[in-house]
Design brief:
Blueprint: E1 4-8, H1 21-41, E2 46-52, H2 70-81, E3 91-94
Parallel strand pairs: 1-2, 2-3
């Protein structure tokens, strides 16, 4: 593989959320990553979008201990980056169990 590009999407970019401009920007990311993946494949590159659900980060006023951890998302990205050259992981949709 000659190059890899990873973008962060969101579960919000896979379903409509009333009044969510954030979700609209993530819909763009999913389309962008898919188109870029097709273009990069022409020269052996890969593009992947990781779209997690709620992640326990400082973004929220209260901790979300039952949600995904940043390490969970990082692990998913590393899995995709480590795929063999003949396999393109184009999207990982990672959700908390509940």
């Amino acid at each position: 593989t000659t190059g890899q590009y990873v973008v962060t999407g969101s579960a919000a970019g896979r379903r409509h959320i009333k009044g969510s401009i954030y979700g609209a920007t993530k819909f763009f990311i999913h389309g962008f990553a898919g188109n870029l993946a097709d273009e990069m494949a022409e020269w052996g590159g890969r593009c992947m979008v990781v779209s997690p659900g709620m992640v326990d980060t400082a973004f929220f006023d209260e901790a979300k201990p039952d949600k995904l951890k940043p390490e969970d998302v990082a692990s998913a990205v590393m899995h995709a980056l480590g795929a063999p050259a003949h396999a393109a992981v184009r999207e990982i949709h990672l959700m908390p169990v509940d």
